[in-house]
Records
---
Amino acid sequence: MALIPAALTGARHPLDPDPVRSTKAAAVLALGIVAALTGFFLGGLVPATLALLLARQARAEQLAAAGFLTGGRALRIGVALAWVGIVLAATALVIASIIGLLHYAGSRNGGDFGPNVN
């Protein structure tokens, strides 16, 4: 049994603004996609960082809008993709470091020193 009649649940005040989608949330989603696609090439760090900074602003605006600013799902997905881009970039950096160290260790002129002349 509901305390509010069914006819009043969908009623809005005439001066209430229409809910609109957050453009910052859409930008976070787009930057998150770019970060996830280019993350393994270390180029994903820039859009991922921008997405995370912009997500903080978008989340604050959504809280201040009290429900009249939508796009929370796009914001969450964009943040998750930005973190995926950062993890991919870190993975690429670790793999490149390991390959570089193995290449350096296997080369002939890597760690040997010439004869000492006194």
Note: The beta strands are 20-21, 69-70.
---
Amino acid sequence: MLIALIARDKAGALETRKANRDAHLAYIDETGVVNQAGPLLDGAEQMIGSLVILDVADIAAAQDWANNDPYAKAGLFQSVDLIPWKRVIGG
């Protein structure tokens, strides 16, 4: 099941994002469930959130993944939405 994780950073949290980026990327590699991912950007191309496409068994597995993401544990996010997603174009 593909799940889109859309997370918005707290205002002024760019340094928190940068400080935890290596741990976040290692978590992605370790868990092996990320299909696609990348930061959301503002008009000045500064990172303000994340879009992660998870390939997991169900929404509960996606929630577990989201809860254990080093970014989430660092308190980076203002909000996180998990939305079932259907690929139509690409990959």
Note: The first strand starts at residue 2 and ends at 9.
---
Amino acid sequence: MTEPFDILLVEDNPDDVELTLETLRSNHISNRVEVARDGADAIAMLFDPGGLADRGRSALPRLILLDLKLPKVGGLEVLERLRADARTRTIPVVVLTSSREDPDVAASYRLGANSYIVKPVEFDRFIVTIRELGFYWLIVNEPPDGRRH
């Protein structure tokens, strides 16, 4: 991974990864996506020496889609790490998870999530949700540093 990308998808379920990527592509959201399959991979990608954060703001993703229930390092810990570092603090983070549990929602917002979305179980609703999510955060939303597509 040496070229910049726009979206970091942190997701361990291969079906959800494929469905998310296909939905973005089929809706002409052509932003580059990189996938981290667990929380440890996401942290390494962003913070290990020589990682994205060391390369400057333009190397960091414009949006992070973060599952909570991840192997190795959980999503809440990833979110906490993102918000603790000045280089990644303002990257929009959308928690995209199957958990409807109030403690997960509350902790996500307390740790600085920009949005919390429960993954719809129905195929059609999942597609609509991903399409609208991509459109809003990558087209409509104005990021604080002016990085636009």
Note: The chain has five helices and five strands.
